[in-house]
Structures are given as C-alpha cells and as structure tokens.
Specification:
Blueprint lengths: L9 H11 L17 E3 L3 E3 L3 H30 L12 H27 L1
Antiparallel strand pairs: 1-2
Helix pairs in contact: 1-3, 2-3
Length: about 120
Amino acid sequence: MATDCEKLSPKALEIFEKIQKFYPPTPWSNPRCTPGGMVCDNRWFDLCKSEDRKSLMEGKKSSLGHMVEIQASVYIKKEGSLKRFSRRSFGLMIQNTVELLLLLNDLDFQIETMDIVES
C-alpha cells in the first residue's frame, strides 16, 4: 500500500526531527531539509510522498551495498581472504547510513500505517 500524506503527523514529525541531523546545511548555508518533510540528498525528496520515501530508501540500500563491497575489497587485498571480515570492518559512514535507513523505514511505517489509524 503506497500512502502519501499532505503533511507529517505529530508522530511522523518526531521521526523526521531525528532524520534532519543527517541533512545539515551546505557550506554556503543553504538548507538541505525543510520543516514540511523535504530533504535534499543529491536531489530533493518529499518524504510525505511514498514514491520519494521508497526511492530514497532504495538509494541508501544501494549505497550500503557499495560501501560494504569496497570495504570487503580493501580487506581481502590486505588480509588475503574475508575469513575475519565482520561488522568491525564497517566505518562510521556505514553506521550513519544504516541509522538513517532505519529512521526512514520508521517514518515510512508511521505514514503507511499509524497515520491512517490515528486519523
């Protein structure tokens, strides 16, 4: 079920506030998020729209895959195998991306299910 909303509910806003820390202003002080639920992640995404949420989450999943692949490639060149390759090999960038992805999933779930129940 793809659900859009016109504005974020109070509970969705709580989640969005946590997401905002991942989108600080640019070095030129241009905002990368708006109070209405928009974030700029190489392009603008309206998190009130299901298609934009899904697109941003898929992009983050793809980024995670690429980051893990790069980490594994470096590790295998250094160690000769992936025998001891583990989550300790993952850097802060991967951890931040995972945290953002989980928050986006929470926001999507909130909008898709709880906003309907709370209306």
